[in-house]
Design brief:
By secondary structure, the chain is mainly beta. A hairpin with a 2-residue loop joins strand 9 and strand 10. The protein has two helices and 15 strands. It is globular, with a radius of gyration of 23 Å. The chain has two domains: 29 residues; 215 residues. It starts with a helix and ends with a strand.
């Protein structure tokens, strides 16, 4: 009887330990691995763009494809004690040409969010812990009427933007590669008769950004039945696909 009691005690203790470990594992996995930051990290993307250029002869549609490399080349502690990682961005038209450095951006991760500084504009890319259907204002300190110039035409690029985490654990096909454990973020999904703002970013666990698509289009052609790709008079469509990472 005493032996049985000891066995039951040990078994119960093991069960409690396993439960505690399970709870810790669940609560500790806040999603930081979807936005990995480490010195030496490198991601190479294929970027396709379509730019709509209004001219006296009508709208000219310009298509382009480049390769983009993002490399974490340095890190430092800023004035607030935050570790900041430096991203060197380089581009080339194809693999036969050398990389040309075009930008230097920065990024950092806090216990509650992942942030990237792009062209001196701060964006909250993810909130931690990851929670599906959670929304937030991703454009830190950027006014909603912030304008950019595309082919000499001004566009309210961030008008009606609201980010939302659509899913935290799905599969996604990017190019010919299938990725597991993907978090999908909606950057914008706003449309009226003359403006269309739509964008998504996909992050794979242990890898980071694997796909991005952004559609910022304006028109004066009031035809709700016509596709935006056909009636757009200014703006752009960009698709960015991961080719390799390390």
């Amino acid at each position: 009887m005493r032996i049985l009691a000891i066995v039951l005690l040990v078994f119960t203790t093991l069960l409690l330990c396993n439960c505690e470990r399970s709870e810790v594992a669940e609560t500790s996995d806040k999603g930081y691995d979807f936005f990995p930051l480490a010195l030496g990290g490198e991601w190479i993307y294929e970027v396709d763009s379509i730019i709509y250029d209004p001219t006296n002869r009508g709208v000219v549609v310009d298509t382009n494809q480049i390769l983009l490399r993002e490399s974490i080349v340095n890190n430092y502690i800023d004035g607030e004690g935050q570790r900041v990682f430096v991203i060197e961005r380089a581009k080339r038209i194809d693999e036969s040409l050398p990389w040309r450095i075009t930008d230097v951006w920065t990024t950092y991760q806090t216990p509650s969010q992942a942030v990237r500084i792009e062209e001196n504009l701060a964006f909250v890319k993810l909130l931690f812990p990851l929670q599906a259907r959670q929304d937030w204002n991703a454009n830190l300190n950027i006014p909603s009427d912030f304008k950019i110039s595309v082919k000499g035409e001004t566009i309210d690029i961030f008008k009606n933007w609201t980010s939302e985490l659509l899913t935290t654990d799905t599969t996604a096909l990017v190019g010919s590669k299938m990725y597991e454990q993907v978090a999908m973020v909606a950057l914008a999904n706003s449309e009226n008769l003359i403006e269309y703002r739509w964008g998504q970013e996909w992050y794979a666990k242990g890898i980071g950004l694997i796909y991005k698509e952004l559609r910022v289009l304006d028109t004066q052609k009031i035809d709700p039945n016509e596709l935006w790709e056909q009636k757009a008079e200014k703006g752009f469509i960009v698709k960015q696909r991961l080719l390799s990472y390390q």
